[in-house]
């Protein structure tokens, strides 16, 4: 009986991951026969766990949605990750989840072993969140939208939604969702766009009317292994609307150290103390601002708009003294 109980707990833990588990794979994991797996699935169902089974090449067993929330089995790392995530969600970056996150965190902390509580408290004490204000304040992502997209991603179900790009142009999208990526207060979805036959990233706060079409898809190879860097690079490309070349009276090493990487397109040495730098940004004013960080004399080579932005910024600084 002890072996059966332990095996049921292991099976339940596997089924709580967001994927289909083929019977043969479960049998290998549990070191039992496929018939025993089927019997264990029936035991879980009698205990109230809604275990769904599907046929086909991508089919198998998975824990479906039921009428009540079943107990969750978390290992130590998962429990710490959930606790830290709940604390993060309670700060208002995801709309509608502040109060519920605090309630869930309170319940979790009541049952955490002391060693895990210490880990959570240490992580929280060592973490500082940057809060933006004014024009840079990002609207919190709707909690219902976030959970809906996450559910479709975990279930590998095709997702439809209306989307507005950075310029405000609207379009209808039909995608295979693969990963959610959080960058500060912004959330991005990495998905394969079926209408454009290519990989795309979507900001969740620009998505509307999301709905699953009920069609499951076979997973494709991801565009890159590091999806966080992939999203970061894509967002940098969107910001690079304006480019300009300047001659900077500093060495390549000094420029490389002082100009942030996403602004810098290329650096070409003219001699030991002078180089040509190609910069990019959302506007000439933004490039002018970052040029002040170089802390060296410079000359605008090919952009009258940047030259005007530099003159405006210089006049503003001059009036301050």
Short recap of the structure:
By secondary structure, the chain is an alpha+beta fold.
Q: How many separate domains?
A: 4
Proportion of strand residues: 25-35%
Q: What structural class should be given to the helix and strand makeup?
A: alpha+beta
CATH superfamily of the largest domain: Malonyl-CoA ACP transacylase, ACP-binding
Morphology call: elongated
Count the E strands. Answer: 13
Tell me what the structure shows.
This protein is α+β, with helices and mostly antiparallel strands and 321 residues long. The protein has four domains: 2-63, Arc Repressor Mutant, subunit A (Orthogonal Bundle), CATH 1.10.10; 76-125, no CATH class; 152-226, Roll (SH3 type barrels); 240-319, Alpha-Beta Plaits, CATH 3.30.70. 41% of the residues lie in helices and 26% in strands. The strands form four sheets. The protein has a five-stranded antiparallel sheet. Helix 4 runs antiparallel to helix 5 (98-111). It is elongated and about 80 Å long.
């Amino acid at each position: 009986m002890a072996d059966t109980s332990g095996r049921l707990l292991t099976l339940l833990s596997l089924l709580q991951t967001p994927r289909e588990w083929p019977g043969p794979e479960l049998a290998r994991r549990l070191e039992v026969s496929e018939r025993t797996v089927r019997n264990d699935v029936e035991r879980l169902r009698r205990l109230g766990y809604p275990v769904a089974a599907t046929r086909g090449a991508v089919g198998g067993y998975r824990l479906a949605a039921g009428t009540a929330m079943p107990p969750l089995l978390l290992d130590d790392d998962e429990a710490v990750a959930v606790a830290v995530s709940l604390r993060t969600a309670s700060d208002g970056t995801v709309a509608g989840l502040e109060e519920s996150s605090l309630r869930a965190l309170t319940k979790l902390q009541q049952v955490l072993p002391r060693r895990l509580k210490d880990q959570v408290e240490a992580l929280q004490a060592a973490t500082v969140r940057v809060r933006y204000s004014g024009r840079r304040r990002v609207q919190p992502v709707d909690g219902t939208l976030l959970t809906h997209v996450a559910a479709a991603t975990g279930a590998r179900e095709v997702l439809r939604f209306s989307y507005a790009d950075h310029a405000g142009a609207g379009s209808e999208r039909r995608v295979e969702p693969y990963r959610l990526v959080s960058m500060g207060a912004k959330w991005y979805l990495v998905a394969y766009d079926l209408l454009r036959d290519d990989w795309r990233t979507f900001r969740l706060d620009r998505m509307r009317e999301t709905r699953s079409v009920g069609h499951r898809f076979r997973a494709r190879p991801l565009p890159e292994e590091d999806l966080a860097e992939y999203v970061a690079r894509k967002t940098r490309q969107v910001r690079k609307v304006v480019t300009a070349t300047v001659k900077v009276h500093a060495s390549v090493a000094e420029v490389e150290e002082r100009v942030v990487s996403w602004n810098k397109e290329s650096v070409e040495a003219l001699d030991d103390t002078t180089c040509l730098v190609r910069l990019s940004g959302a506007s000439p004013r933004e490039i002018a601002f970052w040029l002040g960080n170089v802390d060296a004399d410079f000359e605008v080579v090919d952009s009258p708009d940047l030259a005007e932005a530099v003159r405006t910024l210089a006049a503003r600084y001059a009036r301050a003294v």
